[in-house]
Design goal:
alpha+beta; five-stranded antiparallel beta sheet
Length: 440
Amino acid sequence: MWSPSGERRFRPWLGAACLSGGVALVLSGSPPYERTGTVDLYLSTVAAEGIVCPNVAEKLSDVPAAAKAEVDRNLAQLDKQLQEANDRLATSAGEGGPNFIQNAILGPLTDKRAAAIDRISIAIGRVAERPTGLDDLATCSLDDAQNPAEAGLSAGDFVDIRDVPKAEQPQAGENASTGTYASQCGTNRDGHSNTDNLILAPGMSDGAQLRQDYVGNTSTDAFSTNESLAAADTTCRTGDDRSAYFWPTLRVRGSDDASAAGDDTNNAGTPVQPTSVKLEYRGNLTSEVTAAPRFLRMVSGDARAATNGAENARPTFTCTGFTDRLTDKYPICPSGSDLVRVFDMPSCWDGQNLDSADHRTHLVFPDETGACPSGTEAVPQLRMTLTYDDVPTSGDVPYAVDGFASEQNDPSTDHAGAIGVMSQRLMNTVVRCVNSGKDC
């Protein structure tokens, strides 16, 4: 992440723990994660390539369940409209006269946003009181301040893992739940990938605007429903786990980047699959856990962190043999050591909702002590650990994760998602293992 001065800011949660032991990492710092009105993973809120739009999602803290699908579709549409406008801005430098940007980009963007916002109001108004004041959020403006991401990916975004300080191991409390449960779901050898995001953009093709890889549920795409997920096949060894686990594709950079990118011009390089994917459900440092509900939506990280700031960013990288060293930059691993990406999901549930308007406030992270905030209960924390043994270590920019064009593949934008689709029997087993201190 970048500070206003352009210096990369160290994220305090990366010093919280190493990747050994049976207790969940405390990925915290000053914990902003339980705040309401936090930005969406794919925000339609702030600058991307110079255009600033008001945040619509933060004005919708209580969306009725009956309107949620329609609201989510249109929030995702707002984000896609902003991305398209920024792409147009980036490719039209020098075109037209003094009013070109207003007439050709900002004006049409305002009209499209007004229509999407109106659809959101109508959807809510069918089942509850229609929200007021949203019409004022349609107009966007040009931000002349340079987006730090515009500088592009460089050698400065990489670090030799041997130069990263060792992290501290967290201390489990007397009532900690220290067991684990591992779900074995393969490594996406079948090539289940798409540019959809079922959590953030349901019903919208290319809603993620970057390529994502999946394990677990074999049917996951933008048009999946809870019912279709529950009926689908799974790559997991136990058929009782039909959860959808996904993350952005990692690509190796090289001289043939343009041809390897295919239709995805935002992300250059050759896609590579992890050689191992570890899906582990872990406990809480201060208490036992309770069962998580089926179809719970989980997100970790911010795909626009280079633009939005560090509030929701949680990039965590390391290398095998050095897992007591965690970094928010892309690590360069020495010979014989493999690249590792780590995603810890939030694990403090509000006890009621499977999702929320911002896709965060229903499930938040523990605080710096490992305790869940008041009004939430600890559920098993999912940790996804991806290992790659075929990533080069030479060159200024040897690899990167997929991202928005505006984010320039900044390492701070690494993120992941999951939808829990375990049977109640399996979830009970997970809770029993975690609370008893066993590794299952």
